[in-house]
Fold this sequence. Notes:
alpha+beta; six-stranded antiparallel beta sheet; 5 helices; elongated
Amino acid sequence: MIALAELKAALRIPAALTEHDDYLTALERAAVAYVERRTGWYWGPQQEATALIEGTGTWTLYLPDHASEVVRVVERSRWSDEETELPPSSYELVLPPGETHGLKLSRRTWEPWPYGVLYAVTYTRGYAAGEEPADIRQAVAGLVAHWFEHRLPVAAAEAAQSSPDHVAAILAARRKRVV
Length: 179
């Protein structure tokens, strides 16, 4: 998420000083994992994921992660092994204004996602390096700075230290809500 050079600049560590590089890299990985656990969302690098989602009888399916693209939607019958791939023209990923990722898959046809029908939705989640939301990057950098200042072992960094107030506020605002 945050390159070592960026972390060192944020912490005002000279680039030539390399004795803490492995530790900073480990702290950054631990901070990303901590943010993911606390928010319930995936913030890592782009990857394809598939979710099995039950139809709701409405025109909207909610994805379990922020998605930048829906690659494929397959309708699965509960009573047989039948699978039908839906044409991409029959659905669309709804992106909030100004956002690159969305959570809603909307039906473009006049029929809703039938209640009880299962859909295997393959989508792209995560972010290209440096394109993560600015507040999430700030939370990761804040955690790394806090943990680095206290010089805790990486394994203990997550459990033993509370997060700084600004990080806790970001994570609370981004926490996954149960609908």
